[in-house]
Design a protein that fits this description.
heterodimer, A: 110 residues, mainly beta, 6-stranded mixed sheet, 5-stranded antiparallel sheet, 11 strands, B: 116 residues, 7-stranded mixed sheet, 4-stranded antiparallel sheet
Chain lengths: 110, 116
């Protein structure tokens, strides 16, 4: 998606933390999301954050939102090999249609 | 039980053909969507539909049309298929597009369309 940008690739070692970043241009969204896509599978909602929040923690996942800079990040603590996947950030528009970033492929090395 | 299902999983067809992809959700949701994921993994919304309103992404060619026989189904019909239509198409559903709370979308497993 042109108005939601992510880096293409991230490689980490098992047990390290992963930080996946996303920038967006549309400031009118109500929610911002992180989705996970495993090979050959559909998308799974990992977590979300309401646009008036700046942080949300959910077990190993921490979402940070800097609304002023239009920057969203997803931190995965203690990354495991099962976390290897493509991670998409997204925001909702009119009609609850989602605009996705291009996805970040996370590779976790043992 | 599969929440959002799509058929077929794979579809290979020739240019110029007309094809349909079916989507069914058993969640009782009011709104359904179609997304297209290209070879570079870019995901784009194509349609949002409930029993009141169809919202079309303006970039979608009119060869693509959603058809909803009932609330649980939103099929995607494609006329005069082109090579550039090759992609993975995902169906999704959510409870209510007008809900003020989080309106999580549940995605189907995708249909890989290959146009030769």
């Amino acid at each position: 998606g042109e108005d939601v940008e992510q880096s293409l690739f991230l490689s980490v070692r098992e047990g390290d933390s992963s930080v996946i970043n996303c920038t967006y241009t549309d400031s009118s969204s109500t929610y911002l999301y992180w989705y996970k896509q495993e090979p050959g599978a559909g998308l799974q909602l990992l977590t979300y954050i309401f646009s008036n929040m700046d942080m949300k923690q959910d077990q190993r996942l921490t979402v940070l939102l800097n609304k002023k800079d239009k920057h969203l990040s997803l931190r995965i603590a203690d990354t495991q090999t099962g976390d290897s996947a493509i991670y998409f950030c997204a925001h909702n528009n009119a009609g609850n249609m989602l605009t996705f970033g291009g996805g970040t492929r996370l590779m976790v090395k043992p | 039980d599969t929440a959002v299902s799509q058929t077929p999983k794979y579809l290979v067809t020739q240019m110029g053909n007309d094809k349909s992809i079916k989507c069914e959700q058993n969640l009782g949701h009011d709104t359904m969507y179609w997304y297209k994921q290209d070879s570079k993994k870019f995901l784009k919304i194509m349609f949002s539909y409930n029993n009141k309103e169809l919202i079309i992404n303006e970039t979608v060619p009119n060869r693509f049309s959603p058809k909803s026989p009932d609330k649980a189904h939103l099929n995607l019909h494609i006329n005069s298929l082109e090579l550039g239509d090759s992609a993975v198409y995902f169906c999704a559903s959510s409870q209510d597009v007008n809900s003020p709370s989080l309106d999580e979308q549940y995605f189907g497993p995708g249909t890989r369309l290959t146009v030769t």
